[in-house]
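Something for you to look into today, if you have time. Could you write out one complete protein record for me, on any chain you like? Leave the record below and I will have a look.
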Amino acid sequence: MSNADVEAGGPARPAPAATTGIKPPPGRYNMASNGNGVGSAPPYVAPSPFYYDNAAAHERHHWPWLMPLVVIANVAVFVAIMFYNNCPRSGGDCVGRGFLRRFSFQPLKENPLLGPSAATLQKYGALDWYKVVHGGQAWRLESCTWLHAGLIHLLANMVSLIFIGVRLEQQFGFLKVGLVYLVSGFGGSVLSVLFIRKGVSVGASGALFGLLGAMLSELITNWTIYTNRFAALANLIIIAAINLAIGILPHVDNFAHIGGFATGFLLGFVLLMQPQFGWLEQPFGSKSKSKYKAYQIILLLLALVLLAAGFAVGLVMVFRGENGNDHCSWCHYLTCVPTSSWKCDN
């Protein structure tokens, strides 16, 4: 959120005729090694009208180029994966085989999201606990965030990235938002591989949840410069809660969502802090107000400590081969809750 959007003390701005929506991040998918079904993407949830309104769009001075480039890169990676997947080579009942040829999708009973096989994803960088811990392939903690289980999964994630990432980049610039995106994706993968040992996991939604978490912490740390702050806070909390709740469906890697959200939330306190209200308006050379409030500095330091401790503990546990479920007997319910309609395996 920019100061111009809802800066305290300014004149009331008439409500815009139409508001732009934010699509919450869709799910990161955990595909069983035999390629069976995956979870569905979360629904669209519209934001409140004061958040990212069109009237202040002209006041954002950063030209967004990184997030569109990330979208293009994800699409290019998906096309390359489908090329190497080459479904007709296996002789199965490929979807779109007649006109897509080697780019055709795996049978729907194997992958209902219109994508490659789990074996192909595993070969080209999906998150796999055994390969990360015992195969010396730590690079999979980041590479898996550039892969997608299927065309539906890709479209849902990229639309969300355009709505969330581009707007944040307009406001804070490519460097800060790019760091939040990359580090959040990595953080989501660390938590995922710590708790999930069966199957492979792919998707950019850990990074997307990180952007959502950063939006929330940005509102908190820049609390004094906004009006309608409680409504904005409630709006973001509801969006995050809905999408995290959807992660309890089977075959959706909610640990990646939670890890990415927590990482982005802490990074927001560090990277997205803005000067307090009125500091910029002081005459040059005679600024009596400090640039940041004391609580902003405290939150920044606390976030840095938690980030360092979290990554240190998490990575040590991962590469020692420890199973997070041994230290938290109920945590498996965070990614799947068994019901009469489905079961949850390990």
About this structure: The longest strand covers residues 29-31. Residues 2-25, 33-59 have pLDDT under 50 and may be disordered.
